[in-house]
Each structure stands twice: as C-alpha cells, then as structure tokens.
Amino acid sequence: MNFAHSTSGTGDNAIAVTRVSEMQWHAVEDDRTVGRGDASYRPDGRLFISIDAWHGSTFDRIADAMLADLPTPLYTVVDEADPDSRSAWERAGFAAVRREWGYRVPTDPQVTGLGSVRPPSGVTIVPAGEAEEGPLRSLDHIIRDEVEAAVGWQSMPAEVLPRPAGTTLVDPSKYAVARHLDQYVGLVRVAPLTRQPRIGLIAVRADRHRRGIARALLAHALGSLHRSGTASAWAEVNEANAAATALFENIGARRAAGTLELVRR
C-alpha cells in the first residue's frame, strides 16, 4: 500500500500525506519525512492512533488523512502536562474520556507500612515464577470477565503489550498469586523494567473482595522489590477507581504524572 492521501501547501512546498501501510502514514515535504502517524489495536479491541509531527499544520494534515481512512471510535493518549498535544487532538475532534494517575510507589516496608501485613487466614502468596500456568490463566480470564461485566476493561490502565489473538497472559513468570486452599483468587503482575519496575495489574476475584488479599499481594510484590535493591516502582490508576487510589496513597505512593485518554466517536 502506497497511496498519496492528501496534500497541503505550507509556504513554498507542499506536504503529501501517504498511507504507506495498513497502520502507518507518512507526511513528506520536499522529499523529507516531516511527520508520521501510527494506528494499533489494543488487546481489548479498541483502535488507538498516534501522530509525531513538528508543526501543528503537519499534525492536522496527518490527522485528517487518518480520520478519513479509519473507522470510529478512535482513541489516543496524551500526557496531561502537554497542553499543546491535547489541543491538537481536540482540533481533530477528540475529547477526554478518562484520566490515569501515575504513581511512584516506595518499596521500603518502613515507608509503606506493609512490613507486618500478612495474607488473611487460609490464603498463601505464591511468588512470581512459581504459579501453575493453567490455574493462573483461568484466574486471569475470570477476573477479566468480571471487570468487563462491571465497569468494562477499558476502565483499566491501558495495556500496550502485543498479544497473540485471544491471549491475555503473555509471561506467567511476572505474576505472583494469592491462593486460597486449592484455588487462585488474586494476582499481581510486576514488569521488571530497567529504570523502574511497573506494577501492571493487581486484581482479586469479586467474591474475595474486602478481605485484605490485594493489600497482601501488594506487600509481597513491593517487599520482593525492596529485597532486590529497588527503591520504588511505578503504577497507573484510573482516577475513578477510588479503591485502587486509596490502596496506593495509603502506603505513601506519590502522584507523579497524569495521562488523558481521548476518543473521537
């Protein structure tokens, strides 16, 4: 695919926006690439787009081409600290639908107060890398179905890891789980990123809520990081999720960033 979608005069030269593949667009001026647009499907099926351009006029031309080619709804994310980017997307007809807070989470139990936290009676924590893959995958599907039936998976922090079709759990070694008797009832996923590990998901089955399982999982995950010499981790929380916000803020996590998700319907 190599279709010249649109052109626009800017000064002495014209910008040509070309769809170079199914999910990529290039803006070219005087034989130089001056902007790019990309589209990708998230695991939940939503279509997200991004645009990288130096000038607002180039951004607008790429956006026009992508919006003409792609079905709606379309989604994008912007850093809340970047009002110019948000303004550019709003010119293209996008509006904010939710906000994620980024938290820097201490791992030291003397700071978090989690050093004395133990799992509730009958519950044990299976460390990362030791969970049985079959039961872990079953728990993952149960939790996702429960979230989808309640608030919808789109309300969860955006997950951008590529996954084979139908696969929601790529690397079981990143998960620690809570086990009650012979059942897995909760999980926490920690991605061991070089600069700062990321707590990608912490979730408990709906019938086991309000028993302290999530707090015990978090205590285990942060304690493991602390013992390995990691001072802090990163986590994203939907601002509408009051329980998750309280869980992190009550252990001394500090809000360090904000991300807006925008949609064009």
UniProtKB/TrEMBL annotation:
Pfam families: Acetyltransf_1 (PF00583). Residues 123-265 form the N-acetyltransferase domain. Keywords: Transferase. GO terms for molecular function: acyltransferase activity, transferring groups other than amino-acyl groups. CDD domains: NAT_SF. InterPro entries: Acyl_CoA_acyltransferase, GNAT_dom. This is GNAT family N-acetyltransferase. It comes from Streptomyces gilvosporeus.
